Amino acid sequence: MGAPPGYQPSAWVHLLHQLPRADFQLRPVPSGFAPQEQQYQQALMLVAALAGLGLGLSLIFIAVYLIRFCCCRPPEPPGAKSPPPGGGCVTWSCIAALLVGCVGIGIGFYGNSETSDGVSQLSSALLHANHTLSTIDHLVLETVEGLGRAVRTELTTLEEVLAQRTELVAAARGARRQAEAVAQQLQGLAFWQGVPLNPLQVAEEVSFVEEYRWLAYVLLLLLELLICLFTLLGLAKQSKWLVVVMTAMSLLVLVLSWGSMGLEAATAVGVSDFCSNPDTYVLNLTQEETGLSSDYGMALRGLCEDALEGLLFLLLFSLLSAGALATALCSLPRAWALFAPRNPSALYSGSHLSEPLLQPGACLPPSFLFWLPEETPLTW
């Protein structure tokens, strides 16, 4: 069995391929790539379900933490104006978690770009292979048609001319049979006929799915970036309504992060199973054809190197995002409780408004004199 030029399974492929797999009954499943088998499908679904388990545990932990914070706080002594101890640590832990989330967003953008590059390379290789196969089909068709014309016209005319010479007629008929045999063998060169997957169709479907996948991840990354920035702004401005809105949005993005983590993990495991031992039948068919072998190697490098590496970076982004958002969801309510109270009635009532702005004989600041209109009379 030959290997396509320039392709060698990476260490990540071997590592993911060696992970244990089990179906819904927790029975071991072979790690060979078999997407048509039900047990293998269940194994990939179980890998994706681990992210759902992580989401459930995160939500339970956040709920227990917030309930304990709301219901088990010690009563504050009357007249206490100083913040409770540990308030600064809570705020800074929330800020640190949001900064870690921003780092994860940068990793996510890089992983999304790498995955897109790998899938684009795969689509390009499939399109080039489809062009090669179409060219072979065209050449075979032209050759078969040329042999058919030669058998129908030239050899038939030769047999009529040499009708008096039986040995020459026999030789012409032998040439006819050989030409027909060659035409039949040429028609059998199209080994890809009858294969259910067309390279052009696969390339179009992969490009279509990748376009929407890339757009969805860009929107998710931008949404999380906006949440981190506006949350930091809310903490800096001590805006309670902004912190409340960003807390609700953080919960939504937390669910999306765990969901994307499950899809990324299942896809990475499936891709590693395929890349660890690519289809032997395809390798045996393409090892003698330089053009198809190079296209196949290019497709494998795009899928098994760039795309898989991008998936791993996206998996790291989802993990950092989930951890950062969970920490922020636990810290934001405590940071919110530390905000300075705002009493609007105190701003518009009391002794501050009862006193005149300028006492008789007071001196105006120079800046105030500068902004007074010229026609404004000054009364002292």
From TrEMBL:
Membrane topology classification: Multi-pass membrane protein
InterPro entries for the chain: Tweety (IPR006990)
Localisation: Cell membrane
Alphabetically ordered keywords of this record: Cell membrane, Chloride, Chloride channel, Disulfide bond, Glycoprotein, Ion channel, Ion transport, Membrane, Transmembrane, Transmembrane helix, Transport
Name of a matching Pfam family: Tweety
A GO CC term attached to the entry: filopodium tip
Gene Ontology molecular function: calcium ion binding; intracellularly calcium-gated chloride channel activity; volume-sensitive chloride channel activity
Transmembrane segments: 43-67, 88-110, 214-235, 242-261, 311-332
Keyword match Disulfide bond: yes
Organism domain of life: Eukaryota
Known catalytic reactions: chloride(in) = chloride(out); L-glutamate(out) = L-glutamate(in)
Chief localisation class: membrane
GO BP, sorted A to Z: cell morphogenesis; cell-cell adhesion; cell-substrate adhesion; filopodium assembly; gene expression; L-glutamate transmembrane transport; mitotic cell cycle; neurogenesis
Family: Belongs to the tweety family.
Assembly and oligomerization: Homotetramer; disulfide-linked. Homodimer.
Its job: Calcium-independent, swelling-dependent volume-regulated anion channel (VRAC-swell) which plays a pivotal role in the process of regulatory volume decrease (RVD) in the brain through the efflux of anions like chloride and organic osmolytes like glutamate.
Protein name per UniProt: Protein tweety homolog
Species this chain originates from: Cavia porcellus
Lineage of the species this protein comes from: Eukaryota, Metazoa, Chordata, Craniata, Vertebrata
